[in-house]
């Protein structure tokens, strides 16, 4: 890395007056020019926070100091990090940069809108257009082995339970005209993708269900690899990776970044730097990628799949019987963390580990071992072996627990106690890394988020110039935290109503007083409400109550239809309201008068008996910290920041966020939680909030 060529203030002003050697513009000057050109192309206007972010990202690349950058909604964050990234790629200062996002939706936005605008500007300014690629996980691409080597009878491919589910969704359709026809359409589309030289990305596929897609895609573990697969020469996944290896900017997701870190850099092409967008979701997504589950149903399905390839009847019987053994053991085990190695469920894990090890050996030594179906069955059994072995170990670095699913019954789950070590050693330790989001400061500071990804407070620097020089074997990870603000005037645009006179939330569900308050607020807003509830039951109860109290208003509730359809209707029908749970707290973007009111029924703490939360809190306490604040309160602060952030999405937006949980005012941790939310004008006076909503409704 080279030293920074200009200061952040010069780049941020867009008025740099110096140039590099030989009169060549500096990277900072070119970044400012690229931002100006890109913003002009989309008809936008200069935003100081965007310029500050771009300068800070450039400094991170130049100095190797990691960056945590909070950039509020409306900052223009994507262009803010794309401009300095693409400029350094165009100049040859970096060979390849990986950008990761939490969602496929943002990947699509970057690919279809932000990156093309930024590339146009970079080409105009530097004369070079870096290549870019979108890279997704294996199951997002069609598998030609599944497409071409499956049965011609589509209904025969589909498990009976899936046919039943398909008929329930489309009761008048025969199986072959429902799910079977869907699979046929997907296969035809995949062949068209081959002819077109395309990648068979799921996002480009004809309309389909998850069950249909499963018939033309393959899990990572079951992939035979290009060298052994009969269709390896035409593999869409391999082609997507070839495209990524030829690109300088690779856009992927947090889960694939985690997989790359866990498996020694095999999922992503080599790169020098990482930009992590939507970084507030990073630890949750990495945790998810590093987690696994084991249920009697999984063991039974995998066992039946391997059955036809096993010559040893006793071994086959033992494999299938191990599913029943696990089921009985799970029923005897409390729904909590498993820590006692003498519990029957641990013996069940060990039994499954033992039999699956022998099955994998048998499948690998049989006469049919080269058959693709046999190798895939062996891979599925090997995955069960790996999970059982991990669970049986009861490692201090893992949390193993028993959970109960409403439809499928009990199962065992395992997740890492923390992902901080993985992120520190395999991401920050190997690449200059930028984390950015509208929500990184929890309780008004970056410390919590930094610690969750393995960055220590004693490594924090106040500016990149103050960072001590690093040697090749230096294990320190210096990092800088900055908040570039937001173009919104939250104090003037929004009111935070804290209903301190509401009753304390209890275990009996949403109270009558809260239901009355919800109805009164929705009435005052004339609908136009996004209701964020702590549970599906609370959302449904509130929807029923408000519909009864306000029959002229349209109240949509999560579960009434597909969430995407409900969101579309909420946006299109201005006076409608939408009530829902966790999936609505983040990501939904409803600017304008459609959303005048956001209601939060209670502080979104994780369940106090959730085993992973309990284990993480205990680990923090044993290390001398405050487990509740570090885990539960941080979780709630993040969701409160994201949920309340749904209100103000444009400079012209106005409205009220109403939190109907008095603990946000009365509890000792209340100030910590409030400091994580947008700085709106705050009141506990109900009539003030009602009056403001009525005035807004009258102006529409």
From TrEMBL:
Keywords: ATP-binding, Helicase, Hydrolase, Nucleotide-binding
Cited PROSITE patterns: HELICASE_ATP_BIND_2 (PS51193)
Any single Pfam family the record assigns to this protein: Helicase_C_2
Location of the region described as Disordered in the Swiss-Prot/TrEMBL record: 1-27
Domain Helicase ATP-binding: 36-330
Recorded GO MF terms: helicase activity
Hydrolase is among the record's keywords: yes
Keyword Hydrolase set for record: yes
Family: Belongs to the helicase family. DinG subfamily.
Protein known as: ATP-dependent DNA helicase
Taxonomic classification: Bacteria, Bacillati, Actinomycetota, Actinomycetes, Propionibacteriales
């Amino acid at each position: 890395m080279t030293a920074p060529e200009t200061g952040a203030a010069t780049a941020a002003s867009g008025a740099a007056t110096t140039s590099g050697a030989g009169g060549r513009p500096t990277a900072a000057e070119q970044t400012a020019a690229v931002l100006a050109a890109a913003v002009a192309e989309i008809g936008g206007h200069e935003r100081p926070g965007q310029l500050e972010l771009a300068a800070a990202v450039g400094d991170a690349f130049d100095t190797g100091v990691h960056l945590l950058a909070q950039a509020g909604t409306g900052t223009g964050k994507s262009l803010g990090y794309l401009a300095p990234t693409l400029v350094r790629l165009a100049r040859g200062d970096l060979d390849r940069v990986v950008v990761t996002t939490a969602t496929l939706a943002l990947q699509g936005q970057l690919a279809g809108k932000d990156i093309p605008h930024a590339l146009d500007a970079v080409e105009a300014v530097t004369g070079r257009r870096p290549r870019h690629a979108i890279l997704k996980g294996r199951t997002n691409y069609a598998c030609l082995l599944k497409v071409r080597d499956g049965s011609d009878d589509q209904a025969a491919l589909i498990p009976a339970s899936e046919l039943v589910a398909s008929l329930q969704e489309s009761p008048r359709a025969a199986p072959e005209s429902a799910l079977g026809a869907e699979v046929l359409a997907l296969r035809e589309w995949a062949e068209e993708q081959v002819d077109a030289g395309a990648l068979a990305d799921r996002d480009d596929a004809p309309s389909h269900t998850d069950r249909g897609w499963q018939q033309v895609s393959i899990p990572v573990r079951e992939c035979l690899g290009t060298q052994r697969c009969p269709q390896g020469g035409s593999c869409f996944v391999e082609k997507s990776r070839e495209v990524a290896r030829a690109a300088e900017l690779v856009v992927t997701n947090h889960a694939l970044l985690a997989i790359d870190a866990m498996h020694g850099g095999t999922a992503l092409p080599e790169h020098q730097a990482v930009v992590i967008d939507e970084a507030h979701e990073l630890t949750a997504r990495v945790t998810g990628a590093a987690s696994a589950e084991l249920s009697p149903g999984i063991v039974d399905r995998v066992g039946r799949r391997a059955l036809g390839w096993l010559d040893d009847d006793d071994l086959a019987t033992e494999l299938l019987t191990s599913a029943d053994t696990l089921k009985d053991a799970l029923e005897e085990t409390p729904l909590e963390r498993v820590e006692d190695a003498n519990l029957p469920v641990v013996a069940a894990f060990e039994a499954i580990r033992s039999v699956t090890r022998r099955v994998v050996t048998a499948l690998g030594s049989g006469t049919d071992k080269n058959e693709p179906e046999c190798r895939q069955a062996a891979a599925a059994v090997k995955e069960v072996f790996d999970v059982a072995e991990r669970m049986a170990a009861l490692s201090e670095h893992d949390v193993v627990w028993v959970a109960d699913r409403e439809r499928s019954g009990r199962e065992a789950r395992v997740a890492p106690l923390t992902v901080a070590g993985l992120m520190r050693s395999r991401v920050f330790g190997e690449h200059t890394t930028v984390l950015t989001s509208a929500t990184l400061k929890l309780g008004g500071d970056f410390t919590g988020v930094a610690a969750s990804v393995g960055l220590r407070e004693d490594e924090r620097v106040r500016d990149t110039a103050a960072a001590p020089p690093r040697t090749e074997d230096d294990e320190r990870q210096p990092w800088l935290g900055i908040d570039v603000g937001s173009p919104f005037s939250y104090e003037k645009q929004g009111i935070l109503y804290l209903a301190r006179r509401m009753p304390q939330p209890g275990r009996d569900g949403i109270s009558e007083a809260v239901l009355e308050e919800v109805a009164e607020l929705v009435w005052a807003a004339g609908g136009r409400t996004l209701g964020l509830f702590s549970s599906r039951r609370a959302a449904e109860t509130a929807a029923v109550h408000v519909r009864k109290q306000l029959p002229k208003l349209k109240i949509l509730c999560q579960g009434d239809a597909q969430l995407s359809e409900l969101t579309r209707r909420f946006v299109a029908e201005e006076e409608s309201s939408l009530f829902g749970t966790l999936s609505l707290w983040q990501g939904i973007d409803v600017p304008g008068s459609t959303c005048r009111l956001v209601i939060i029924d209670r502080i979104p703490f994780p369940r106090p008996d959730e085993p992973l939360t309990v284990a993480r809190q205990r680990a923090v306490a044993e290390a001398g910290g405050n487990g509740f604040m570090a885990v539960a309160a941080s979780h709630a602060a993040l969701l409160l920041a994201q949920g309340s952030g749904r209100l103000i999405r444009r400079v012209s937006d106005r409205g009220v966020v109403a939190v109907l949980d008095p603990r946000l005012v009365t509890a000792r941790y209340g100030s910590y939680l409030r400091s994580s939310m947008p700085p709106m004008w705050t009141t506990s006076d109900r009539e003030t909030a009602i009056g403001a909503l009525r005035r807004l409704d009258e102006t529409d």
